[in-house]
Amino acid sequence: MMEPSRPARIWYQSFVHPIEQAPYVARLQGLLDSVAGPGIRFEVHGLDPPDRFFHPLTEFRCAAQAIRRALEAERAGYDAFVIGHFQEPGLLEIRGAVDIPVIGLGEANMLTALTMGRRFGLVTIDPVFIDWHERQVRTHGLEHRVAGVRAIHADLPGFMRAFTDAAAYAKVRAEFVEQVRPLVAAGAEVVIPAGGLPMLLFARECPFVIDGAVVLNGIVTVAKAAEMAIALHRLTGATVSRRGTYAKASAECVNEFLGARW
């Protein structure tokens, strides 16, 4: 069993480019620094190339990168690994490859939402993701607890301006509220901005409530889920079950993966 009081480092794997999206990375790191518990250090890492095309093939490629990063994080002594991308590609494979806690941005938020309301809804930043998130909800076995998935039509430059420009922020917020209201009418009691970008953008509103429904602060949620996972690991020695879904990959399996070109 690990020492509960030892300082902890958490590898936060974002799927944006560390240089091209440096302002976003800096804002994300700043928020994580502000909410981290005593003795907890989050370290944001990007991907190169990043997740720039809205296509399953890109998600697959990013998943392979994330798996390598998780193996690197464990070998470097990190205490947990966060997949900071709502679709969380590679989550199953990473949990089967490392022994440190692995937290998915989407899963952590959906499970937390169910402790705050009976049903939740998702609002993503592009309609192309609606089908993806519907599959994701089914993968986690939560289809009976979701009121729906909707999307705003956000262009990335305009969305990024919303971080610093009040008029741009008001526009994005109004579009978000417009998509939330049908979800609330359909029974959503909690709403999740489905993505790191909208989560970070709306983190300034504490609390954020629309028609009585709570809009989850997704970055803070995954941060605290990671801290809890570390605490449980240290106190109980357990991370995930190796019985089936997250059966541990052999050293030979891992070495074969690392030796391949992806």
What does this 3D model show about the protein?
The chain is an alpha/beta fold. Helices cover 45% and strands 15% of the residues. The protein is built from ten helices and nine strands. It has helices at residues 22-35, 56-75, 91-95, 105-113, 129-139, 156-161, 166-185, 196-201, 218-236, 251-259, and strands spanning 8-13, 40-45, 80-83, 102-104, 120-124, 146-151, 190-193, 209-210, 213-215. The strands form two sheets. The protein has a five-stranded mixed beta sheet. Strands 2-1-3-4 form a four-stranded parallel beta sheet, sandwiched between helices. α1 (22-35) packs across α9 and α4 (105-113) packs across α9. The longest helix has 20 residues, at 56-75. The relative contact order is 0.16. The model has no long low-confidence stretch (mean pLDDT 93).
